[in-house]
Design a protein that fits this description.
The protein is an all-alpha fold and 576 residues long. Helix content is 62%, strand content 2%.
Length: 576
């Protein structure tokens, strides 16, 4: 009992822990194989082109990086989750620039106050402030958190200062968006972007027009067939009137529709950004992200690093922090996607690097990187575990030689262990907010209700006299109450029945099983006075011994019918 304040506190604690079970949300369907093929092609092209620009243009000119781990997560969004709001061009470019700016400012302030070497604190503060800035600019983009974390943890980049914002943050994001627009719109079922700038919700007519738009590839194939037919007779003779004169006609250009169809997709279908969160929700996002990244950094700095030569604080967890603490309801942020998707990224990267090394092709770093990210997306889609930080994990391993020195240990830490820590912190911190429930689901699909267990009546230890009492009450009161087509006179007689026949019985039956059963028909006739035993009952006399034996035999037949049916359900304990 206790005081009202104590009861309210206990209720709040119980409600907090009840959120840990999740919201039983439905899962997402697995994409078709054609979708996966286009995702693979786009991701491979994006990372490969970015790597070539990095190697042949950026490094010789400005001596800075262009291909960083954050673009692995960006590739998953731009080529696999193309309809997500966080994958649109505004979010991609603006969100990545915001992450770079926040990282530069935080590191500059930490160096100014003499704490430049406190990397775990700089990383946690950079990612959490990036989330707050992105939320209030309507530019939430998980790879932006990875970009901020990369600058905070990589000391050689600190000397670049705001050059890091220009390259790789802005330049790399623009290149990836351009490749996504070019490649995605080649597929019939894809339109990217959904919008360039958040605006009004698209009309149903616009959505239907984009959905019915044919694939540019199909138009090209049809155009080639038409061109072959036209090339057989390049000059067409047409008779005009009575003069019989002929004119020459130029063959029509059958490929023109492909350009119109293809370029129309570039405009998108319009869309509406998610509403801005309140200041209180941004505070929970900040605290959750800061706490999660701080715990990850402390474990990395003081436990796994010096004692086990392992690392868990890497760029991918900046993107994961944005997903878990800012978009906690998104399917990409759920524990199954996070743990399996990130582990898949680490495992695919280790396998690809080992195979390339065995074939003697490991010096082709950017081909290896593109293949790792593209294969990670393909495996994630076909296992229904799409998770953008998994692409960052795969890219990090393939372009960072110190990570390759970990070999198979990289799959456990950071890929698996770091994700478990972040998901655990997400469950603890997100549910402190009254408006949040994390996770939405633990498994692939928690919305499927478990089938109610069927009670086998043959396994119930019911004593014979209890069956007799149940059958007597069932036949004379309950089933008659549920029988179809009873008259009002029978209802009145039933209401005048002695109270012992109307006592509640702890067994519940489905009347549809018994309607029309021979025992019920005979018992009904006896109760209505249509038989000698029924007449004795109507006059208040006891039935004869022969009638009792007949009733017992009929009851035995009914019990056999009960035991072979599946509609007997035990509602509460049987009483004597």
């Amino acid at each position: 009992r206790g005081f009202p304040a104590q009861r309210a506190m206990v209720a709040s604690v119980a409600a907090y822990f009840a959120k840990f079970a999740g919201s039983k949300a439905a899962g997402t369907p697995k994409p078709p194989l054609t979708h996966t093929c286009w995702s693979f092609l786009g991701a491979f092209a994006g990372i490969f082109v970015l790597g070539q620009i990095h190697a042949h243009i950026v490094i010789p000119t400005i001596h800075g990086p262009l291909l960083v781990a954050a673009f692995g997560a960006m590739a998953v969004l731009l080529f696999s989750a193309i309809k997500a709001p966080v994958a649109q061009p505004y979010n991609t470019i603006c969100g990545n620039i915001v992450g770079a700016l926040v990282g530069v400012y935080v590191v500059s302030i930490m160096e100014a106050i003499g704490y430049g070497d406190c990397f775990w604190f700089s990383g946690a503060l950079s990612v959490s402030l990036t989330i707050v800035a992105q939320e209030h600019l309507d530019a939430v983009h998980p790879p932006g958190g990875a970009t901020a974390l990369i600058f905070a943890l990589t000391k050689p980049l600190h000397k670049e200062h705001f050059l890091f914002v220009l390259c790789p943050a802005a330049t790399g994001a623009i290149i990836m968006v351009a490749i996504a627009v070019i490649v995605n719109n080649l597929a019939a079922e894809r339109t990217y972007p959904q919008w360039w700038w958040p605006k009004a919700t698209p009309s149903p007519a616009d959505v239907a027009t984009q959905a019915a738009m044919p694939s540019p590839m199909s138009i090209v194939m049809e155009g080639e067939c038409m061109q072959r037919e036209v090339s057989r007779s390049t000059v067409e003779t047409v008779e005009t009137g009575d003069t019989g004169e002929t004119t020459e006609q130029e063959p029509c250009d059958a490929l023109n529709p492909v350009y119109e169809c293809y370029l129309d997709k570039f405009a998108g279908v319009g869309g509406q950004a998610p509403p801005k969160p309140s200041l209180s929700e941004s505070f929970f996002s900040f605290m959750g992200s800061f706490t999660g990244m701080a715990v990850l950094g402390l474990v990395d700095t003081y436990v796994l690093g010096p004692q086990y030569d392992m690392k868990v604080e890497v760029a991918a967890f900046g993107a994961m922090s944005v997903l878990i603490f800012s978009t906690s309801k998104a399917p990409l942020a759920q524990p199954t996607n996070a743990i399996l998707g990130n582990t898949i990224g680490g495992a695919v990267a280790v396998i690809v690097v080992a195979c390339m090394q065995y074939l003697g092709l490991l010096e082709h770093t950017y081909t290896c990187a593109a293949l790792s990210v593209a294969l990670t997306i393909a495996v994630q889609e076909q296992t229904n575990t799409v998770h953008p930080p998994g692409g960052a994990t795969a890219l990090l391993y393939t372009i960072t030689p110190p990570m390759q020195a970990l070999h198979q240990k990289f799959i456990f830490a950071p890929a698996f262990l770091g994700t478990v820590i972040m998901v655990g912190m997400g469950v603890v911190m997100n549910n402190l907010s009254p408006a949040r429930t994390y996770p939405q689901r633990w498994l692939f699909d928690d919305s499927k209700k478990e089938a109610e267990p069927q009670v086998d009546p043959r396994r119930l230890r019911i004593r014979p006299f209890e069956l007799i009492r149940a059958g007597s009450w069932l036949g004379e009161w309950r089933l008659r109450n549920r029988a179809v087509g009873q008259s009002e006179a029978r209802s009145e007689r039933r209401s005048q029945r002695p109270p012992q026949l109307c006592a509640a019985w702890p067994l519940k039956f489905d009347s549809r099983v018994w309607v029309g059963h021979p025992w019920l028909q005979r018992r009904q006739a006896m109760t209505d006075g249509a038989s000698p035993s029924g007449a004795r009952l109507a006059r208040g006399r006891k039935p004869s011994t022969r009638g009792a034996r007949l009733a017992i035999s009929e009851l035995a037949a009914l019990m056999r019918h009960i035991l072979v049916s599946s509609d007997l359900v035990l509602c509460r304990e049987l009483s004597r």
